[in-house]
What does this fold into?
Amino acid sequence: MKISELKLHSIAIADPPLRSSYGLHAPWALRTIVELETDDGIRGVSETYGGEEPRAALEAIRNRLMGMDPFLLTGLLRDMSRDADALTEGNTSVPGGRSQTWLVPGENPLDQTTRTFAAVEIACLDIIGKAAGRPVCDILGGRVRDRVPFSAYLFYKHAGGGGNSDYPDEYGEVLTPDAVVRECRQMVRQYGFREIKVKGGVLEPAIEIESIRTLRSEFGPEMPLRIDPNCAWSSDTSVHVAESLREELSGGGYLEDPCPGLDGMAEVRRRLLDCDIQTPLASNVAVTCLADVPRARQLDAVQIVLSDPHYWGGLRQVQLLSHLCSVLGMGLSMHSNSHLGVSLMAMAHVAAASPNLTFACDTHYPWQTERDEIVAGGRIQFENGCVPIPDRPGLGVELDYDQLARGRERYEKIAFRKRDDEAEMRKHVDPGWKRILPRW
Ligand SMILES: [Mg+2]
It folds into this structure.
């Protein structure tokens, strides 16, 4: 079995005006759908970051992929990493290095190799699953759970549904604690989520503290709560928020990337332990690759790592991370970006085959719509907040080519080619807005 074709589809999907410390989501999120076909007619699919750069990076390895045995992934990653090391050696021009302090996931040139490899690996695992007649999680060594829990991912947002004005605004404006509770009630009713995440770093910390408290009194301690301000807070503010939410973030909750960098998070952790506050700190910003994990552990800066197959280098790297975290006594959760059903299933399969996944995964899926889904048969259905692993071979999804064509048309029509939340913020909310860390 050899790879005989690579097809790349750049698509745009509507994205509501969600806020974070990076700024504002644009009306469109960009994705690239990758199709690999083998000489015996098996087609594998994956979904990755959109725009010109991820596509060009995949084009650049087209010749290497043609004729490749889709089973031989280890050698491909070794070769791609070797080439990348040679190119990026001594590259200190990226602010924050490999961290996501300044660059959103998908934009950091230093993890381009693992992002590009992941897009190929996932499509190859889909092929291998189809060839073997088994779901991808079983190809990864076997599932340890049949249903993968996801969390409600709440955002502060402005009014609007994203895309053209004819996309419905399902959740309305959400800029107060009461509106966050309304958003959560609606999302939990529809999807059945049992854990709650709030994207913070947007409003005054006192309002965000109030949001978490209001959620706790509405949903009770059986729904663990986490808040992620994406480094918007100083060490002092991080400690203040953790002290204020000592009770609310306990019992399966966590505080995610409150301030920038491992040293800052280590300081916050020390000060919290001094006050006997055990709230764990989680990160997808300061810890973005396997090499970051030992130092994060050594400093006790991070107790929970957020994996993400899209930039950690695919499903098998996430399994490695799961094992490493287990050995080091750390917890594991999963990060997400705006995505459709192919990514959701890739995330679900690796989560099913990662024993140490100790928290419900993040997903932006509720923020996208049926209208833009490119998976045949429509949106993936959640059951009680979980994605059930289907018995079908591979990822268990096929592409709807009419929907894919509509996604490509949208991409061709719009001017966006790169995510820039700061520019969107200036355009729609505040002409003088700049991302400042720490803001509070
Ligand atoms: Mg995060």
Notes: Residues 30 and 50 are 4 Å apart (CA to CA). The chain has two domains: 3-137+403-413, 140-398. The chain has a mean pLDDT of 96. The pocket of magnesium ion is lined by residues 228, 230, 256-257, 284, 335 (CB under 6 Å).
